[in-house]
Amino acid sequence: MPATDTTPCTSPVNVTPVAASRQVFLSARWQALAMINFAIDPDLLKPLVPRGTELDFFRGVVYVSVVGFLFRQTKLLGCAVPWHIDFEEVNLRFYVQRSIGREVRRGVCFVRELVPRRSIATVARWCYNEPYLSLPMRNQVDLAAITTSPATDQSHHLAYDWKSATGWCGLQVKTCGVKQPPAAGSLEEFIAEHYWGYCRQRNGGTIEYEVQHPPWNVWQAEQLPWLGDVPHFYGEPWVQTLSGQASSAFVADGSAVQVFRPTRIA
């Protein structure tokens, strides 16, 4: 069946007290991030916004993104777990912000996250209450070309696929132009530079966790046709949005990342 469940996860959450010292929960390299972005009616997202946050608008518009990328050199609490070091992820996400005095924390909320290993999905749901689903996955990414590509107009094709009950689905993009930092104030900068994650909890509360990585270089990209019926895989209210023309698509080269243990927010 299509993955249409968008309710908050109900597993217990391993939450660090706010006053506790920060601890890295996960470290990895996120690489070859294909990001396809769609404008959406904010009223469709309001029921999913975690308490204590609000939708993050870019020039008056709210966006959702379908993102495919590679996990590499993954470690949990500093330890590499055999057969769980290198894998794909595809997620559907939207953007929120939280104000703390004069500080504005710009973050990501996930509607669905797909990974190929059941244990990865289980740990993520248990520790962060994130909406993970385990399905067979595959990719078509020349990672060596992505990571070593010079500042030329060499084109790259990337595809991330997953196998649902109705067959293979997936996203694919083709880069154009040269890799460079996103322009200041651009949609690409807005999408790529969210450094916090937020997730609703069973009791109606919210957890917050920090994600650290350096700014990424990006290629502009062309969205190629979905493989299979991706919009209906996600179900309502995403069908109309994901069936339309993307507002933008780009590929980020990626980097090392650190994901810190979560804290509850007031």
| Structural class computed from helices and strand pairing | mainly beta
Strand content: over 45%
Low-confidence stretches: 1-21
E-strand count: 14
For the record, the CATH architecture stands as Beta Barrel
User: What is the CATH topology classification name?
Assistant: Acetoacetate decarboxylase-like
Number of domains: 1
- N-end to C-end Cα span: 37 Å
Total helical elements: 6
Shape: globular
Could you state the CATH homologous superfamily?
Acetoacetate decarboxylase-like
**CATH level 1 name:** Mainly Beta
Let me know the average pLDDT.
Answer: 88
Largest beta-sheet details: 7 strands, mixed, barrel
| Backbone CA Rg | 17 Å
What is the share of helical residues? 10-25%
Strand order across the largest sheet? 1-3-4-5-10-11-13
Order of helical and strand elements:
EHEEEEHEEHEEHEEEHHEE
Task: Describe, in plain words, how this protein is organized in 3D.
This protein is mainly β. The protein has a single domain (24-264), classed as Acetoacetate decarboxylase-like (Beta Barrel). It is built from six helices and 14 strands. It has helices at residues 42-45, 118-128, 143-148, 187-192, 230-234, 239-243; strands at 24-40, 54-55, 62-76, 87-100, 103-115, 132-134, 137-140, 157-164, 167-180, 196-200, 206-212, 218-223, 248-260, 263-264. The protein has a seven-stranded mixed beta barrel. Strand 10 and strand 11 form a beta hairpin. It is globular, with a radius of gyration of 17 Å.
